[in-house]
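Annex B. Sample input.
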Amino acid sequence: MSALYDRIGRTYRTTRKEDARIAALIKDSLGDAGSVVNIGAGAGSYEPRDRDVLAVEPSQTMLVQRPIGSAVAVRASAEGLPFGDATFDAALAVNTVQHWTNLRAGLRELRRIARKRIVIFIRDAQRGSPFWLTEDYLPSLDPSRRIATIVEAIEDELRSVKASPVYLPNDCADGLFTAYWARPEAYLDNEVRRNISNFALVMDDDLARGLAALRADLESGAWDRKYGHLRQLRDLDLGHRLLVAELASIAKE
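Annex B, continued. Sample output.
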């Protein structure tokens, strides 16, 4: 994860800004947690400002982009957290677990350091509406199988997990992979793609072919004939979920 974001994350904050609507849902999911450790914290988005937050991030490139006033951050990885048992009320992991080198080790570390709950924000590609970009243009970027394994591991390790859907607004400020579902032209922008880790994982030839097909369909109107109705929607469920595990429930099992 550190090597990936050291390579692609140099301009991360230009397109990957906190979306206030997603932030509000994450804040609500933390409940009464007064202290929060934010794992894979990146440049500081989605850290609640009314809690005692400590950020953990392995990439120096991401750490230097954290704005003045952000939570104190330490450089470490999820699989080996430098904290004692039950140090924080809650552990937060936003768009990060899919990058961990040892998912189950990281999840066990979250269980070890959190007292009350664990909150994970992830896209489960098997849920919600199909995403046209991977359906029609870049099928090699479809994460369904890999994410299914990740979700299974989360449910196995954390057990008492409640999943809540997060609908992406059509003007989502956070330029994550699916953010431009109603703004397809954005995927032709190099800066947009540069700050989305998914695009760093696709073969250059596949990416070139997919983008060429998308550009041609936008120019001919084919995309709008098939998907133009999406431009009229306020939001859409593309599988993003908030997974919340109450640790008191796990302890009773």
